[in-house]
Amino acid sequence: DIIKLFSGKVSLILNTNGTTQLLGRIVPLLKEAGVLVRLTVDAMNNDLLNQVRPPISMPSGGFDQVSILRQNIKLLVESDVNMMVHTVVTQQSKGYLEETAKELISLGVKRWHMYCVDPCWKCKDIFDDIYVDKPELRTICEDLKVKYGDKLHITYPSSSLKNRACAILLVDSTGRFFV
Q: Which of 34, 45, 107, 120 is the most exposed place for a label (fewest CB within 10 A)?
């Protein structure tokens, strides 16, 4: 309902961690409304994902987020939904970026955007331990572009980017929407 409400009035972006089971049910609506689906993928590694983005209830032995991510990425790519992956680069995730690039390419992803961690109340106690500064992020991205830029459009924030009005829809792994 929320997608139908905003469709045609603003540019819609659906942000999700990619582990929601909801995507399969709404792919036709996403495509029809021209929604940009942005999947947050910090790494294609379950140990890291379960550490930095733990599921609401963690089963003993961990949670296989990567399998669900692969399934949802394949669904979006095969359905030709406007999508991209974005990654928050941290000290913990930066060692997995090359592995992630290879995996994204194998799944057919064409666009990958990387960000630094923004200071916020949720990470104030660990910010200094996880932060990758913008010059380091730029170097990481440029190195990845040299290796994979012919198969994957890799971007990172720059001061020359211009923003336009859009509504960003957030969906959690249970399928609940937030605006």
A: 120
pTM of the model as a whole: 0.80
Cα 159 to Cα 125: distance, rounded to the nearest angstrom: 27
Query: Per-residue DSSP letters for 55-76?
Result: -SS--TT---HHHHHHHHHHHH
Tell me which residue has tokens 């582990």: 19
In tens, the pLDDT along 79-89 reads: 999 999 999 89
Tens of pLDDT, residue by residue over 99-155, are 999 999 999 999 999 988 876 666 667 777 888 889 999 999 999 999 999 999 999
CA distance 21 to 70: 12
Q: Which two tokens stand for residue 53?
A: 């983005």
Q: Long-range pairs for 164-168 at CB < 8 Å and ≥24 separation?
A: 164/11, 165/10, 165/11, 166/10, 166/11, 166/12, 166/13, 167/6, 167/10, 167/11, 167/12, 167/13, 168/12, 168/13, 168/14, 168/15
* Spatial contact of 64 and 16, defined as CB atoms under 8 Å apart: no
Rounded CA Rg of the chain: 16
